Amino acid sequence: MTKDVIALTQRMPDPLSVLAGLLSGGPDKLVDAEGDGAVVRLCDERGRPLVSIEAPLLVQVRGEARRLLGASEPEVPYWWTEARATTGVKEGEELAGTFAARLATLVGGTAWPPRAARSLAVVRTDGVSAVPAPAAAQPAVDVLTDKVAVVIQDRPVVAMTAWLADAFRAAADAELGLQIVTPPGTLLSPAVRANLPGWPSRWVVQDDKDGYYDGLSGAVLDWNNGLFAAVQSPEATADDPRTPVAGAFTRDIADTGERQLAVSYRAVHPADERLVLGGALEAVWRELTGEPPAGWGTEEPVNLPWSPRQLTDVARERAPEPTWLVVVGSPERPGLATVRVSRTKGGVEEDVTLAFGYGPGEEVPADAVPRAAEALATRHDLQSMLVQIRRARRDLSVPPRFEGPGVPYAFVLGAEEVRALPGDRARRTPLAQPPRELGPRTRPALYYAFPGDPSDLSGWQHFEQLMRHLRGDRPA
Question: 388 has which bridge partners?
Fold first, then answer.
């Protein structure tokens, strides 16, 4: 049974309905709160949490329940209330299910997954005791060692929920890795993939044959000395570790015809009170899809309708600390971006990673890429931009199997960066095709085109050759 249970309700859960849900363990069950009341917990007799319940979130963006849960959702706006049971306590899972079932019944809605929320009866928990809370004191952390915090997730898509974002922050503050453990059918949201740090953090996938493997590299893993680590082959040497790769990672990797158009760019804006963030992202989105983004938020599910002004207000309130955001498109055209806004000596930086998904027979709008690049270069303080085409899922989720690398389609160097290079270095490149000028002739940005065919990995050779040239590296 899943550890997470979610109520999707048309009306906001009122205090009486929440109280009825909290009584799912009987009237003598201890209730605790943390985070200024943002999280309510049902506890055992010693005050240790059995179930942690997040404050309801008003979702005003279509398609989030289907994208993240595979569930039908009420008409927007609706309320999303998560309950997470303590791992390894069967009664905790039943408490979470009963809480969600009562909430959905009283205020109108559904619970996910349906099998976890079938009973409204009081759950018998006499004598039930939870394991001590991890030292990180985070509801999402299931195992804590001196090396890593381990999070166990049994959801269709591991998303950057408030729970998981807290676990990321707690692990980073404690200088620990974060390891996410999932069953084999689970996918990662691109937002989680983009934020997963390097070693010893990793995505750990359970597998019937190999036990565990890394969902991003395929390396077979085992639990060793307080963390999941790669298994070494008996023939391994210091120069050739020969880490075994799980069979599930390379199975079923035939080309399905699905594609992604991936865009990453950095814009550096002058620090000005009149600055409105998000305009660059909206310009790219409109050029590539014909419509603006649908919604944005600081976590998943994305809950707020698209608003550059509100986005700017949040970033300004958090300054000088950086702000991380996730942006999504309409369900009809899958699109997702992660945005990091930082205040630096150069001004206000927006680092954006964006992807759109296309199914078999759907044309990737590559011809719109130069227009998107020109909009960024002429109106939105572009520093640099890389566009790739990938063989990858239309729904943008990350599967625990091999997906080939993207192939560069275009690279753009902003006008200030072109001017900063000596002489004509930016224009006289080793590429067969000369760069295209974007913007005014006196201060142009430069657009470099590559083959862009996902089956032609020579695009990376051309890209690396260009990067070495722009840096002024001497030929080897």
Answer: 262, 408
